[in-house]
Design a protein that fits this description.
Layout lengths: L2 H22 L26 E15 L6 E15 L3 E16 L4 E16 L3 E14 L2 E15 L4 E12 L10 E13 L1
Antiparallel strand pairs: 1-2, 1-8, 2-3, 3-4, 4-5, 5-6, 6-7, 7-8
Length: 199
């Protein structure tokens, strides 16, 4: 065996022995070494809308009749109370509310003094924002008698904090034969700004 061949065998054997020794002796990390894991990616699962709430509203009410003889509008203010249940992305609830107003109809021939409502509402949970549709029955207290009719509308609520909510709502009402007079049909639109407290 030549000198070059002997040198090559020696280098090859030394490398193999060193590799085997290194593989069998793992290097331990220092005891005080910190291991950093990537932060989990946040997932928007929606806010928590389950619970009771109550609050106040302020807005505007506008009444229109088919003939134009019973038109009128005025400010409105009142209170509301309800309960929502959050199913995850969908929220379902019920609410009672009451608005005080003084809508003069037909130049003083009649007036709407207040409106009370029983609502069902369902909406989509967008986290701190809830967009919903609502419908139910409304009872208007008028100077010529109480009238009951359906209503429907849309609304939005926003969680300023976990307990305090602000929102807005627009509702369309239908009252037929107001005062017991056939054809005295009134369509009323209300828009309100709302503030609520959850508990």
């Amino acid at each position: 065996m030549t000198r070059t061949s002997k040198l090559f065998v020696l280098v090859l054997g030394t490398t193999a022995l060193g590799s085997a020794a290194f593989a069998g002796s793992p290097v331990e990390a220092p005891a005080d070494a910190q291991v950093y894991a990537p932060a989990p990616v946040p997932v928007n699962t929606g806010g928590d809308w389950t619970g009771f709430y109550t609050g106040l509203q302020f807005g505007h009410a506008d009444a229109d009749s088919a003939t134009g003889a019973l038109d009128g509008d005025d400010t409105s203010y009142g209170f509301h109370a309800g309960y929502d249940y959050d199913f995850g992305q969908f929220v379902l609830g019920g609410e009672l509310d009451y608005d005080k107003t003084d809508i003069s109809l037909g130049g003083g021939a009649a007036s709407i003094d207040s409106v009370a409502r029983a609502k069902i509402r369902g909406g989509y949970d967008l986290g701190r924002t809830l967009v919903y549709a609502t419908a139910g029955a409304a009872r208007a207290d008028t100077s010529v008698g109480d009238e009951t009719g359906p209503f429907f509308g849309l609304g939005v609520a926003y969680q300023v904090t976990d307990r305090y909510l602000i929102g807005a709502e627009v509702l369309e009402h239908r009252f037929d034969d107001v005062g017991g007079v056939a054809g005295n049909d009134i369509d009323a639109t209300t828009f309100s700004i709302r503030g609520s407290l959850r508990f």
